[in-house]
Write a structure and sequence with these properties.
The protein is mostly helical. The protein contains ten helices and six strands, in the order H-E-H-H-E-E-H-H-E-H-H-E-E-H-H-H. The strands form two sheets. Strands 1-3-2 form a three-stranded antiparallel sheet. Helix 1 crosses helix 3 and helix 5 packs across helix 7. The longest helix is centred in the middle third of the chain and has 23 residues. It comes from Uliginosibacterium paludis.
């Protein structure tokens, strides 16, 4: 067996996610034979590689055929990484506030400080990742806007946000919430974005003064890029 494949498989199992900039991950993303062998290794233990080209990290997740064997017969939280309903709702709100604007910037080939007005060749740029396109959410603003609906400010600040950080969905720093390594990998963008843009959460965000990114609506088919992974982590 290829030693490099063995090492990468072990690292993915140990860490759960790795950055796309990792040399072995980069090879897995461009070398078809290498990727196939890695996928075979992971499949042998019921896992698959989760790769979203817009995300800064890749991760491992359960294959569909073992979902029932792993989660069958257990309580509701077993299939949601131990998150309660309020915590899942909080996660969805944070995803909407960070990932939706981020994806709009990525598709427009724009950075956080670029309005795209002066770049004639923006669409020729590669997709950007990391802090250049992923914004942050103020904890105090989040608590003021959604604290009452999601279990109370104290519960969110002292428990829910800490749990989301430990799971790898967010990073907390100096009063701000940043994208964690799993936020844009484990949540299915095509399903989530459609439900948020055209669903109830759009009204909730609007009521809190949190407008969706400009131009996002029913006709924005480009935002649902066919290369996004169709993965439902919380099912």
């Amino acid at each position: 067996m290829n030693l490099e494949i063995t090492e990468l498989t072990a690292r993915l199992l140990a860490h759960r996610w790795l950055p796309r900039t990792d040399s072995q991950i980069r090879r897995a993303l461009v070398d078809e034979a290498f990727r196939a062998e890695l996928e075979s290794n992971l499949a042998a233990v019921g896992l698959q590689l989760l790769d979203n080209p817009f995300a800064e990290h890749v991760a491992v997740g359960l294959r569909d055929e073992v979902m029932d064997a792993v989660f069958g017969g257990r309580d509701y939280q077993a299939s949601t990484m131990g998150l309660t309903r309020d915590e899942i709702a909080l996660l969805v709100v944070i995803w909407a506030l960070i990932i939706l604007p981020k994806r709009e910037r990525q598709l427009g080939r724009r950075s956080l400080d670029d309005d795209g007005q002066n770049d004639m060749f923006g669409q020729d740029k590669p997709i950007e990742h990391g802090e250049s396109v992923s914004g942050a959410v103020s904890e105090s603003s989040l608590l003021a806007d959604f604290g009452a609906q999601l279990g109370g400010r104290t519960k969110i600040r002292n428990f829910a946000l800490g749990k989301l950080a430990r799971l790898g969905f967010i990073v907390r720093s100096n009063g701000y919430i940043h994208e964690g390594p799993l936020l844009d990998v484990l949540l299915d963008y095509r399903v989530m974005a459609d439900r948020i843009i055209n669903g109830t959460l759009a009204d909730v965000l609007a009521a809190a003064g949190r407008a969706l990114p400009a131009g996002m609506g029913e006709d924005d088919d480009e935002l649902f890029d066919e290369t996004d992974e169709d993965v439902d982590p919380l099912a």
